[in-house]
Amino acid sequence: MDAKMRAQCLSSFWKAMGIQTMVFMVESMATAKAMYDNCAPAFEAVGGKVLGRENFETHTVDFYTLLTRLKT
Which residue, 13, 48, 60, 69, is most buried by CB atoms nearer than 10 A? Predict the structure, then answer.
């Protein structure tokens, strides 16, 4: 299973759970960015709406500012 197929499966699952909107917290590394690049369009393709994306550095432990930005 490649990343695109995994994103399609996850997006269908999220939609079936009734999730209509989503925000992403993406770690600043290639694999996490690739997962976002596949998941965001796949979620929107099944009718979901991506409201935002925030990046964070590896080893970050304080997410208060990031979560506050996403909440607004």
Answer: 48
Strand partners, 68: none
Name the phi and psi angles at 62, rounded to 5. Answer: -105, 110
pLDDT digit string, tens, across residues 11-63: 999 999 999 999 999 999 998 898 899 999 999 999 999 998 999 999 999 99
- Helix, strand, coil shares of the chain, percent, nearest 5, are 55, 20, 25
User: Hey, what domains does the chain have and what are their CATH numbers?
Assistant: 3-71 (3.40.50.2300)
CA distance 18 to 13: 9
The DSSP bridge partners found for residue 40 are none
